[in-house]
Amino acid sequence: MLSGGTDSALVMTRQPFDGLRSGRHPCWRAILAVIGIVTGVTTTAAATPMCAIDMGSNSFRRIVASFEQGRYTQTGIEKATMGVGDDLTRNGRISDAKLSEIERVLAAFVASCKKDGVTTAVAVGTAAFRDAPNGGHVVDIAARLGIRMEIASERRESELAYLVGALGRDGYAVVDNGSRSIELVSREGGVHRYLVVNLGYRVAYERFFAPIDDPAAASIAFRDRLREESSSARFVTGKKKLVGVEFGDMADVLFPASELEGRIFTLETLKRRLTEITSSGAEFSALKQKKGIDTALPRLVVAVFVLEEFGYSQLELTERELGSGLIIEAGMKR
Question: What is the pLDDT, as a whole number, of residue 214?
């Protein structure tokens, strides 16, 4: 736990080291060397990990991972709940207290990167930093700590979201549902197309669900607004697959527990759950008290809307975050 602001929370998970399976155990290195001699196949060095910091409007994530030959391998992640977007809404800028909190969290992330043997950290800031008149101050803070930070334009954020969802492959459609914005993205023949809708889960919940007791009316109003805002996004239709980025809370809060990466939700399953929630005012009132519902329910509505509107029968989820796009991009350039 990292103390700082009143709502900060830092949680870290690490994947266990499996020396035998990875080929890093001494015995296996010897066996692999023999195989190389017998078959004439040379083994390549392990991929170099990167430390990327995803500075979202609601939370920051420090990701340690690598991307080589189309394979994304994540070895560690830390998360800090920051509420930068809420701070911006209250103050019209990122407050001095929040800037100090950001500096403390980034410093802790840099120390963790060095512990993991990664000396270089890169970072990307999203909608809240674009909108803040003093967003550049955060870039300066990051630079003093040795972090190369960029504040992503809408186009840049959508490009990274596509890399996260499609691992750089052409022909996919990606929907990235953040706290302040939703990106709809596709790429075909190297041509990248995107639309940003400023109705992320935090914005949507406060506008459509928090003040309304009629869940069906709230859902319909939100979907009508989504339809109006995304009418020019027909470019996401007819792709190989629709991938959802940042839908983990929807899966965790509203559905039985299961592995997130590669989890598939059919349109039928999502619609059934949404109907269950919106058909009873009493159930909706009780559900509004559930932790995480403000992040989960708007994403459920978005998932149903995107599948219906653009003609998909299922949504495949990924646990990769926007910062993963920086790692995938670097791996593709190598």
Answer: 87
